Amino acid sequence: MPKDIFITELSDLIKSGQAEIIDVREPDEYKLIRIKGAKLIPGSELAARQEEIDWQKPVVFYCRSGVRSRLAANFFARQGREAFNLSGGIKACYKDKSFDNLEIPAAVEAVNEYLG
């Protein structure tokens, strides 16, 4: 079973450079908002593209709210990998004003509509 990781823990990992962050959303979602330095590998492509993941570091999966990323983390945890699910997904990151590791290239209105 994968472990959940929370925003404060993720921030610490990002600052230390000690995590591989994988966005399992679709490309159109990734264009709206993403965590800085995250690698986009949509959930449907994870099994085929797993060699692109740096397993020498803890791997944190995220999606919009944490559902798809939990499935991804669970898939790899069952294989004995160190896989984490970002609790609450990018939606939680967006709502936490202390989290300063977001890239928001799209119009703020579109992001607000997407994350509600």
UniProtKB/TrEMBL annotation:
<dbReference type="InterPro" id="IPR001763">
    <property type="entry name" value="Rhodanese-like_dom"/>
</dbReference>
<dbReference type="InterPro" id="IPR050229">
    <property type="entry name" value="GlpE_sulfurtransferase"/>
</dbReference>
<dbReference type="InterPro" id="IPR036873">
    <property type="entry name" value="Rhodanese-like_dom_sf"/>
</dbReference>
<protein>
    <recommendedName>
        <fullName>Rhodanese domain-containing protein</fullName>
    </recommendedName>
</protein>
<feature type="domain" description="Rhodanese">
    <location>
        <begin position="15"/>
        <end position="98"/>
    </location>
</feature>
<dbReference type="Pfam" id="PF00581">
    <property type="entry name" value="Rhodanese"/>
</dbReference>
